[in-house]
Every structure is written in C-alpha cells, then in structure tokens.
Write a structure and sequence with these properties.
Helix 1 crosses helix 6, helix 3 packs parallel to helix 4 and helix 5 crosses helix 7. The protein is of the alpha/beta class. It has a 6-stranded parallel β-sheet, with helices on both faces. Strand 6 and strand 7 form a beta hairpin. It has one domain: Rossmann fold. The chain has 9 helices and 13 strands. The structure holds NADP nicotinamide-adenine-dinucleotide phosphate. NADP nicotinamide-adenine-dinucleotide phosphate binds next to strand 4.
Amino acid sequence: MNIAVAGGTGTVGRHVVSIARARGHHVISLSRAAGVDLVSGDGLAQALNGVDAVIDVANTSTLNGKKSVEFFTTVTGNLLRQEKAAGVRHHVALSIVGTEKAAAGYYAGKLAQETLVSKSDVPWTILRATQFHEFAGQMLRRSSVGPLVLVPRMVTQPVAAREVAEALVEAAEAGPRGRIPDLGGPERKQLAELVRAVAQKEGRKRRVIEFTAPGPLWRSMRNGSLVPEAGAAVGRQTFSDWLKTDLNAP
Ligand SMILES: NC(=O)c1ccc[n+]([C@@H]2O[C@H](COP(=O)([O-])OP(=O)(O)OC[C@H]3O[C@@H](n4cnc5c(N)ncnc54)[C@H](OP(=O)(O)O)[C@@H]3O)[C@@H](O)[C@H]2O)c1
C-alpha cells in the first residue's frame, strides 16, 4: 500500500513511518523537511500522487483555541481537498480521548478536525488516543520557570506513542471504519507525578509544583475528561516501563 504520513517527523509520526515501512508499505512523509507545507498547501498535490491512504498526525503546539481551530481546519481542509483530487481512498486521523468534553483551547481544534473529517467525501477512520508517555517530557520543557515546573492538576492514562502508531497503521490496512474504539494506556496517573519521574530520569534538578488551573477546561481535565470510558482498547506498555527505555532513541 502507498501511505502518506502528514506529520511523519513528529513524536508519533516517526513511529508511524517506521512501523508502516517495516510492514512492507511504501511510505512518504508530508512535512516541511520533505518540501510539503500542510498550512499553505505547497507541495501537497504532487506528493499525494498514487497514494492509497493518508495518516494525519500533524500537530501544532498552540494552546490558544482560535489558533488551534485555524491550524487543524486549514491542514485538514487542505489534505481532504487534495486527497479527493488525487483519488486517495482512505483518510486516517488521530484525535484525543475526551475531546468533546474539553472542547476549548487546543482541544477546540481537535474537535473541528474531527467534524471536517467525519463530513468528508474521502472515506475515513478516526482513532482517539490518550496522552502519550512523551507528553510528560513536553510538559517538563514547556512549563519550566528556572528550577520550578508548574504543572496543572490533571488525571491522564498515558499510552506509548509507538502503540498508537501501530494502531494507526493497522487502521490504514483495515480500510475506512469511521470512529474506532479509543486507545488508552494501562494505568491512570496524575500528570505531575509523571513530570517528576521524567525530570528525575533526565537528571534535572527541578521542583515540580502542582497547581489548580482556573476555568472549565482545566476543571474537566482534573475530573478525568481525558481518560477513556469502558470499551476502550488498552495499551500494553506502562509509563514506568517506558521510562526504563532510552528516551532519546529515534
Ligand atoms: N502528544 C500527545 O500526547 C498526543 C496524544 C493523543 C493524540 N495526539 C495527536 O497526535 C497528533 C500528533 O501529535 P505529536 O505530539 O506526535 O506531534 P508533534 O511531535 O508536535 O509533531 C508535529 C508534526 O506536524 C508537522 N507539521 C506541523 N506544521 C506543519 C506544516 N505547516 N506543514 C507540514 N507539517 C507540519 C511537523 O513537521 P515538521 O515540523 O517537521 O514540518 C511534525 O511532523 C496530533 O494530532 C495530536 O493532537 C497527541
């Protein structure tokens, strides 16, 4: 199968590319390094020539709702338009568990993305996953103020990005199925606990301060809006097993 991975250089995208190649697919990465800009659309039409399925794992780091909606609607709109023109038969999108319950800030963009995909003429599959194990490290880097790390109180059920990538490649192979069961990790944790563990593993002297962030979005995340409900698929690798691996491995 010819598979194009939008965001193939990212945290989960790198795994999608390597797993799909290992399973014998011909894979291209749609990212700026490969000459494709998903926001402007430059290089996209040409890259989709002969592609059977697109796996979209592109991302933005903004937490601003307006910017997030703008990014995900632009990227998804560009992809779906060019996929239709190129005769791509399957669009696989990765979203986040609980997106509709936390539909503000960054998550408003994910909901807008899901809406576009589910109304598209291109046959589709949407997988929702929980936060990756890598999310705690992203939080550590983004929320450090000198020796302090400010982490909002939030319950999460982290999953290995590699297992999410496996599920996405399997979804591409299986063909369009609409919304498929959510995927979460094997254990529920407080985000601050995970950030502390990553700081310790990386030998960083940091004091992790857990705080109660204001507003309905954070309240819902504290109350577990981002953890999966019954019936979700459960990943195998625990956060502590992931922490024992080489975190800098490609
Ligand atoms: N992180 C999590 O915990 C988590 C959990 C569940 C679901 N998700 C979802 O998983 C997806 C991927 O997240 P991630 O954390 O793996 O992302 P990431 O590491 O931030 O990677 C983002 C990817 O998007 C690409 N990209 C961004 N802007 C682009 C542009 N204008 N043109 C072309 N490519 C562009 C980047 O490519 P270049 O910069 O190389 O061009 C990169 O490959 C997102 O949809 C996210 O909502 C994430």
